[in-house]
Amino acid sequence: MRLGIDLGGTKTEILALDGAREVLRRRIATARNYDGTIAAIRALVAESGVEAPVGVGIPGTEAADGTIKNANSTWLNGRPLRADLEAALGRKVRLANDANCFTLSEATDGAAAGTRVVFGVIAGTGVGGGVVVDGKVLGGAHGVGGEWGHIPLPAMRVDELADSRPCYCGKQNCLEQWCCGPSLSAELERRTGRTLSMEQIATSNEAEEQALMARWTDRLARGLATVVNIIDPDVIVLGGGLSNIMRLYDELPPLVEKYGFTLGGPPKIVKNRHGDSSGVRGAAWLWPE
Ligand SMILES: [Zn+2]
Question: b/e string for 99-129 if b means 16 or more Cβ within 10 A?
Fold first, then answer.
């Protein structure tokens, strides 16, 4: 048995897996303070009755000193979450950020099952990424492995340079600022005055929407080509709102091939299998043994 917990900004979910089979799942509102978060997880684990180590997906990164950094659930930042959970639960705990959990779930028994090197992208209101190699998250030396959303947009065009975008992380022109859903909507509104969602723009027949969608897809492809050149993934799995734009699965691969140093033809880019469940499933798979 294995236990996974997805600690989201608004909900906290627990899942118990027996092999790959779900035997228990429960979702509660997230306690938006630190002590409440620890108490809620302790209660969920106790109620499960399952004696197993616990994996927890978090909206941030566990730094080398054991404290949490860059969590948008800000009450976690600077806190030694893993040590405090281990003390509260009386068992071993592993943490990973939510994009890494998504990628691990899809690599283990999802859309990328049976492959070795997997890159996962979650794009919607934000943009995140994760790398899994041989069934293990590649977190790197400081836990920032796969942080695709905060590398700068490659090969910026003249019109993009004139539209330089600051990021909340303190840098300029992060991919998140060019490839998240709200950035697409904001660019359309600036150009046309029309307010549409990412999904509406993707399926619109208006010329301006079509042109904007083509530019946006090209930016995604430039960002993905950078990843392809570094880790050459067997599969790229898309998650979040972006993964529901079906045209991307046809349009992205040839563009990534064009921009990347690709030898084996266009990369394989697929839709996730587990959807919103990938976070909690990946948390459980943090304990493969
Ligand atoms: Zn950034």
Answer: bbbbbbbbbbbbbbeebebbbbbbbbebbbb
Ligand 1 (ion): which residues have CB within 5 A? Answer: 150, 167, 169, 171, 174
The pairing of strands 54-58 and 93-97 is parallel
Q: Which of 74, 62, 139, 134 is closest to 100 using CA atoms? A: 139
- Give residue-wise pLDDT tens across range 89-114: 999 999 999 999 999 999 999 999 99
Global confidence as pTM: 0.92
Tens-place pLDDT, residues 179-223: 999 999 999 999 999 999 999 999 999 999 999 999 999 999 999
CA-angle at 97, arms to 30 and 249, nearest 5°: 110
282: Cβ–Cβ under 8 A, 6 or more apart, which residues?
A: 4, 55, 57, 96, 100, 101, 102, 103, 104, 105, 106, 108
CA–centroid distance, residue 171 to ligand 1 (Å): 5
